[in-house]
Design goal:
Radius of gyration: 17 Å
Distance between the termini: 36 Å
CATH architecture: 6 Propeller
CATH topology: Neuraminidase
Strand content: 35-45%
CATH class: Mainly Beta
Structural class: mainly beta
Number of helices: 2
Strand order of the largest sheet: 9-10-11-13-17-16-15-14
Shape: globular
Number of domains: 1
Helix content: under 10%
Length: 282
């Protein structure tokens, strides 16, 4: 996940100019319904929908000063569950831990630090809470064959009540590798949608695809295998040319709206596009 906005020469994706369509038989189709924009500095890293339908955005400017002083210099794609805001933080390149901050509806923040396990990358790209509020799914950067699972801080009674150490539970093993996942969100208890910044086109036919992960049962803290399907290429539309960057994703269960962020290249990167979708049946 890049830490600063930069432009590089690249072709615009030919896949990004229409409504999303599923790439596998039987997979749902998501129709693009509109695009809004938010400032990248304060909202370009992720978003989550509140109970009243409004949106919470996160960006580099969202990191509180006291957390930045502690070394938490990157914030990922957030989630909201039971009125609690879950933020994913990572530190410098030599970090030996990652951190999830949970803010209660009353505004009290608690910090849960996860010491890195053997072979675990320091990246903390996103937080996605299961619909039952008991499990927190996150992910690392680069080429991966898993998503990480933790007890959801505060909401899962196995976690400390006022912050502390957070151990990893059974992971979600993916049936095919993925690359550069910026965010995931639950659509149902057994389905996640994930936004990928993979521009290589080597793992899936699409560039910067929206990925679907289907589970055989709801997350329960034990190892489980997820089936990955690439649905469609996320839009890359801008008056500026260069390299786009996929960012956060949110599914609002109340209205069924799916939103995915895309940072445009060059000077256009000061504003992040938020593309909205609704699921349709043919």
């Amino acid at each position: 996940m890049r830490r600063q906005l930069l432009a590089a020469t690249a072709l615009l994706s030919a896949f990004a100019l229409g409504a999303g369509t599923a790439s596998a038989a039987g997979a749902p189709r998501w129709a693009e319904t509109g695009t809004t924009y938010t400032g990248t500095l304060g909202g370009g890293q992720g978003l989550a929908s509140r109970a009243d339908g409004s949106l919470l955005f996160r960006g580099l400017a969202s990191i509180p000063l006291d957390l930045r002083v502690k070394g938490w210099n990157h914030i990922g794609d957030p989630d909201i569950a039971r009125g609690h805001v879950f933020d994913a933080y990572q530190g410098p390149d030599n970090a030996q831990s990652k951190m999830f901050a949970v803010t209660t509806p009353a505004g009290k923040r608690y910090e849960y630090v996860h010491p890195l396990d053997a072979g675990e990358k320091l990246n903390n790209s996103f937080a996605a809470v299961s619909p039952d509020g008991q499990w927190l799914v996150s992910g690392e950067w680069g080429l991966q064959n898993r998503l990480q699972v933790f007890p959801a801080p505060l909401l899962n009674p196995s976690t400390p009540a006022t912050g502390g150490t957070l151990a990893q539970a059974g992971q979600i093993t993916l049936d095919k590798p993925v690359r550069d996942i910026q965010g995931c969100d639950f659509v149902t208890g057994t389905r996640l949608l994930c936004a990928s910044n993979d521009a290589t086109g080597t793992l899936f036919p699409q560039v910067r695809p929206l990925l679907q992960v289907d589970l055989p049962h709801e997350v329960d803290g034990r190892p489980v295998t997820g089936t990955v399907t690439s649905l469609f290429a996320l839009p890359q539309r801008s008056t500026c040319t260069g390299t786009f960057e996929t960012e956060g994703i949110d599914h609002d269960a109340r209205g069924g709206t799916l939103r995915v962020q895309m940072i445009p290249p060059g000077v256009c990167a000061v504003t992040t596009a938020v593309h909205a979708y609704q699921q349709v049946t043919d």
